[in-house]
Amino acid sequence: MAKIDNIDLGEFPLLLAPMEDVSDPPFRALCKEYGADMVYTEFISSEGLIRDAAKSMMKLDIYEKERPVGIQIFGANLESMLRSVEIVEKTKPDVIDINFGCPVKKVVSKGAGAGILKDVDLMVKLTEAMVKHTNLPITVKTRLGWDHDSIKIYEVAERLQDVGCKAISIHGRTRAQMYKGEADWKPIAEVKNNPRMHIPVFGNGDVDTPEKAALMRDEYGLDGAMIGRASIGSPWFFKAVKHYFETGTHCEPPSLVERVDIARRHLQMSIDWKGEKLGVFETRRHYTNYFKGIPHFKEYRMKMVTSDHAEDVFATFDEVEEKFADYQFVE
Ligand SMILES: Cc1cc2nc3c(=O)[nH]c(=O)nc-3n(C[C@H](O)[C@H](O)[C@H](O)COP(=O)(O)O)c2cc1C
């Protein structure tokens, strides 16, 4: 059983990874409905939060139905991180997660995200201070190290645990790799196999088939899988993995009618959450995958991703449902 403090996530939980501009409340709710055991918000700037930047504050919204949920924050300044913990606490997440893994230049150049992998002492100090500053569990998401020659995750994980971090999610790449190459799960397994480690160690990176999730569980012995890109436009991926765990077989991919229903609900939740303009705009990125594989679909896809009004997008969904109802998706 994987437990973050007293939050019981069950046997080998599947976690929705924090993803900027993707892991918003509507998408998290869909992933939860389709089997994610825990979800995370996209990363939120501690500096933005303390300036009360509306965009950062909006990212703190949580639906009750998506719990347990972790709010992820990033920053490198102790004072700002502590003040943002106070702000985040008020929105009552289940967990506060610290992003020590973002490889993007504008984050790293300020010493935040994966930038902190160059200063493990500061990483530990920030984590310790945040743990002491809140009653909520603090978890960490990070990478293997700064680059191939500085993979210190074994030591880092131990030290984070020692200062009270309640779980660690490890992306099996270094900062230098960005998203290139294959994620290496071996160092993550070494962390897990460290006899001193007792907090959950979640593996992340390239879990895009049920078989890979099973490998992470059975061969690498990790405590759970954090899933990012494979869920974009496929929130049902979590269900597919669980089905495979239970039966050793692949479940039927969702039918066209089910996909249209998901797309409709996704769009409606987004509109309810952030208004028509943003809701229509920000849900677009998901449709391509929702309807991937349908031949001669371009005309409909174009309408979905260029219409500015919700009623036009909904009308396109109706058309798609009528025209392609019998289309059989293959995995
Ligand atoms: C579009 C996108 C946005 C991301 N934003 C975040 C983020 O806000 N915080 C974070 O810790 N990781 C972020 N990541 C990294 C993912 O959480 C994850 O570590 C990475 O995609 C590897 O997992 P995957 O192979 O399952 O996608 C992002 C990844 C993508 C593709």
From TrEMBL:
<dbReference type="InterPro" id="IPR004652">
    <property type="entry name" value="DusB-like"/>
</dbReference>
<comment type="similarity">
    <text>Belongs to the dus family.</text>
</comment>
<dbReference type="InterPro" id="IPR035587">
    <property type="entry name" value="DUS-like_FMN-bd"/>
</dbReference>
<keyword id="KW-0288">FMN</keyword>
<dbReference type="InterPro" id="IPR024036">
    <property type="entry name" value="tRNA-dHydroUridine_Synthase_C"/>
</dbReference>
<keyword id="KW-0694">RNA-binding</keyword>
<protein>
    <recommendedName>
        <fullName>tRNA-dihydrouridine synthase</fullName>
        <ecNumber>1.3.1.-</ecNumber>
    </recommendedName>
</protein>
<dbReference type="Pfam" id="PF01207">
    <property type="entry name" value="Dus"/>
</dbReference>
<feature type="domain" description="DUS-like FMN-binding">
    <location>
        <begin position="15"/>
        <end position="313"/>
    </location>
</feature>
<keyword id="KW-0560">Oxidoreductase</keyword>
<dbReference type="InterPro" id="IPR001269">
    <property type="entry name" value="DUS_fam"/>
</dbReference>
<dbReference type="GO" id="GO:0016491">
    <property type="term" value="F:oxidoreductase activity"/>
</dbReference>
<keyword id="KW-0285">Flavoprotein</keyword>
<keyword id="KW-0521">NADP</keyword>
<dbReference type="InterPro" id="IPR018517">
    <property type="entry name" value="tRNA_hU_synthase_CS"/>
</dbReference>
<comment type="function">
    <text>Catalyzes the synthesis of 5,6-dihydrouridine (D), a modified base found in the D-loop of most tRNAs, via the reduction of the C5-C6 double bond in target uridines.</text>
</comment>
<keyword id="KW-0820">tRNA-binding</keyword>
<dbReference type="InterPro" id="IPR013785">
    <property type="entry name" value="Aldolase_TIM"/>
</dbReference>
<keyword id="KW-0819">tRNA processing</keyword>
